[in-house]
Protein: hydroxyacid-oxoacid transhydrogenase
Amino acid sequence: MVYESESVWEFEMAKNVTFGVGAAAELGGVVREFDADSVLVVTDPGVSEAGVVDEATESLAPDDYTVFDEVEPEPSVEVFDRALEEAAAVDPDFIVGLGGGSSMDVAKTTSVVHEHGGDILDYVAPPTGGGRDVPGPGVPTACLPTTAGTGSETSPVSVISLPEEDLKVGISSRHQRPDVALVDPGLTVSLPPGPTASSGMDALSHAIEAYVTRRYDAKPAPQDRTDRPDYNGRSVLTDQLARTAIEHIGDGLRDAVNNGEDVEARRNMSLGSLMAGAAFTNAGLGATHAIAMAAGAVHHTPHGVTIALTLPEVIRFNATSAFDRYAEIAELLGEDTSGLSDDEAAEAAAVAVEKLAADVGIEGGLSSLGIGPDDVDHLAERSNALQRLLVGNPRRVTREDLEGIIERSL
Structure:
């Protein structure tokens, strides 16, 4: 059969994005637009205890909503099950995801599973799950991020931890994209420096990997448009979003970490995260996220920190396949690449990422997270299994290549 390359690209995100300081105050208006009487707010204990739930729900009548605040970082399938049980008890006609990526992921998946029935793992791909497609829209959902990093407020994906199997799996469906994303930088002001730094580096990696991932027309054409993957390759639109995201994050992350009340820095970070999320959830990711996902599942390392400590060596590995793009990334992060060779310009991008991470308190290599030489082989094996991420990497990457990247990141 003659190879036929893809000739079109698609772009999707939340059906509506409302951005700016004060956006959270519009939640009540959104709920009324959907004529909703019963609202389930999905969040975590830290957000609840910090009073952010009260702030975000101020425009709702107290009797109109129920709070489920049991979401944990890297939520296990048991957390998703408990949220689903709460939804069964409340039978909401609107769901709000309030918090970081974990809370928003639980909200999105609760929306579709409550609407269509079954168990959480029914919708996870084989061999772990049943491979059931989400047949249609779920309960209307709004996501309000309290961090600037995950991009989950526009994403079709939720990530589920299976700790007994040292495994992370996902549910991916366009029906998991929220109906509304209310992105309010004011909700991130109380985020401590550590989570601000790690989530910000995650957002930066989303933008960088989306910018260098394989082009949409360097992939095979699907038999039918419904067969086109969610990560369908970079396009002119994702490129513009990724560039702007890199610039905003490079401008804002240091100030957001050093002074959380710097609203302009918080605005830069929230906008950068939003744009990076929209870029990568259409274009795709690469080896950095494959390694970080595997490390999180096996070693329970914090995702954003793992990303920050791995990204520079991935850039160095990928450089020969994307010299021009990494040179531009270096410039967007403030490096002067004039007069540099291709190799030197790409190296400047890796150095810029290392400098930014160190300036916000992330350094020391993967060994600082408890990963040692004896872990490299197994971690590379688990990373190599994540082909849905690696298929977009700009340079072909083997298990042996992954071993080298991990070793150099220690």
